[in-house]
Specification:
globular, 25% helix, 6-stranded mixed sheet, alpha+beta, 260 residues, Deoxyribonuclease I, Chain A
């Protein structure tokens, strides 16, 4: 196996809005090998033509049954060996949150994890989704697969991952049980790639638009690239592209290298 992969993950908060804000130009300028997007808010038949015809990229999308809601997509320079929409659990798959592509070198999963702020019901749904995904990923890992997992996880893991931890201890996104799930996930053999290279606070990927929080860098790190332990030696860099605008989230990146 050999090759270099430059991956990026971004909650675009609407693919049509993102295209108007220069998403296409960014894609072509940066020469990313894989672009994983979340919250497309568009069914495949409603996607703008320019999103489906980006030169040099294969594209794959999964959408929610509910219009204008959720949805994820992957743009890939390499044609995958296999593409899988959903985890095979109807109550989760109907929200269009999971897309998996298999390559020779690794399996990539692009996920828009649920937000639990709206109600206790949605928080319960979020935690159930977390547990279902945990089982799904562990089953693949048990087969010896090399996994790359990216997306909007909708939880800040540690106090350094948000600007105001004390004030948010009772808010979904920083609840003890949400953070404990991330601990359990990492303890099971997954790596938060950004923290391989950076152990400092002040690195965020989401900011509230209501309070002009981005200008003051009052944010949360909600977007991640995780890899299984058997990919650690292939990780070359992990980034947060906080300078890239166009959404209330910014992109996060991962570079992988496979030698022949």
């Amino acid at each position: 196996m050999s090759g270099h992969y430059n991956l990026v993950s971004w909650n675009v908060n609407g693919i049509r809005a993102a295209l108007k804000k220069g998403f296409l130009a960014l894609l072509l300028e940066q020469k990313f090998d894989n672009v994983c997007i979340q919250e497309t808010k568009a069914s495949p038949d409603k996607l703008p033509r320019e999103a489906k015809n980006i030169p040099g990229y294969y594209n794959y999308f999964v959408s929610a049954e509910k219009k204008g809601y959720s949805g994820v997509g992957i743009f890939s320079k390499r044609k995958p060996l296999n593409v899988k929409n959903g985890m095979g659990i109807e109550k989760f798959d109907r929200e269009g949150r999971f897309l998996r592509v298999d390559y020779e070198d690794f399996t990539l999963m692009n996920i828009y994890f649920p937000n639990g702020k709206a109600s206790q019901e949605r928080l319960d749904y979020k935690m159930a989704f977390y547990d279902a995904f945990f089982d799904y990923a562990n089953a693949l890992k048990a087969e010896g697969r090399k996994l790359v997992i990216c997306g909007d996880v909708n939880t800040a893991h540690k106090e350094i991952d948000l600007a105001h931890p004390r004030e948010n201890e009772t808010i979904s996104g920083f609840l003890p049980k949400e953070r404990a799930w991330v601990d359990r996930f990492l303890d099971a053999g997954y790596i938060d790639t950004f923290r391989i290279f950076n152990s400092e606070g002040g690195n965020y990927s989401w900011w509230s638009v209501r309070t002009r929080a981005r200008e003051r860098n009052v944010g949360w790190r909600l977007d991640y690239f995780f890899v299984t332990e058997n990919l650690r030696e292939n990780v070359r860099s992990a980034s947060i592209y906080s300078e890239i605008t166009g959404s209330d989230h910014c992109p996060v990146g991962l570079e992988l290298e496979f030698e022949g």
